[in-house]
């Protein structure tokens, strides 16, 4: 059965509107022509995510999100997405948005990575932001 789950590592954090968020992300995956198998979001601290960044990506920088694509079949979503709640809160203040809106942007950003969208080049980043905005507007909560 397709599943989106939420966990915490090194932090206590409870996502609001879990059922609505699951449906929104699942609807996004389907709209992009993919099938959902298993998607796990792990909310964590800056330090926890920094260690993952160092260990798996050889980057020694703080980040808000790291996405691991674990799928072995084309068109099937299987992944783990780590999100620093501390980065979300700091970025929400920096961008003058609510913590919830920033978290939702990052949640969908991770899903979009699994759907094949990149953000390394300026053109890819522009497309990614456009897709984020599009799906953020689809939230019904």
UniProtKB/TrEMBL annotation:
EC primary class: hydrolase
The enzyme's E.C. designation: 3.1.-.-
Subcellular location: Cytoplasm
NCBIfam families assigned to the protein according to its UniProt record, in alphabetical order: rRNA maturation RNase YbeY
Function of the molecule: Single strand-specific metallo-endoribonuclease involved in late-stage 70S ribosome quality control and in maturation of the 3' terminus of the 16S rRNA.
Cofactor(s) this protein cannot do without: Zn(2+)
Family: Belongs to the endoribonuclease YbeY family.
SUPFAM superfamilies with a match to the protein in the record: Metalloproteases ('zincins'), catalytic domain (SSF55486)
Cofactor note: Binds 1 zinc ion.
Highest taxon, organism lineage: Bacteria
Keywords: Cytoplasm, Endonuclease, Hydrolase, Metal-binding, Nuclease, Ribosome biogenesis, rRNA processing, Zinc
Species classification: Bacteria, Pseudomonadati, Bacteroidota, Sphingobacteriia, Sphingobacteriales
Protein name according to UniProt: Endoribonuclease YbeY
Database matches in Pfam families: YbeY
Chain sites annotated for binding Zn(2+): 109, 113, 119
Chief place where the protein resides: cytoplasm
């Amino acid at each position: 059965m397709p599943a989106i789950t939420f966990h915490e590592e090194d932090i206590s954090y409870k996502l609001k509107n879990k059922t609505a968020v699951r449906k929104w992300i699942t609807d996004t995956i389907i709209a992009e022509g993919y099938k959902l198998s298993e998607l796990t979001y792990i909310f964590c601290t800056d330090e926890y995510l920094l260690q993952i960044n160092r260990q798996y990506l050889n980057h020694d920088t703080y980040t808000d999100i790291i996405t691991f694509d674990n799928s072995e079949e084309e068109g099937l979503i299987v992944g783990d997405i780590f999100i620093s709640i501390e980065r979300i809160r700091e970025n929400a203040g920096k961008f003058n948005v609510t913590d919830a809106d920033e978290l939702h942007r990052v949640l969908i950003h991770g899903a979009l990575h699994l759907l094949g969208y990149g953000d390394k080049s300026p053109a890819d980043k522009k497309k990614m932001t456009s897709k984020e905005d599009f799906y953020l507007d689809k939230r019904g909560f």
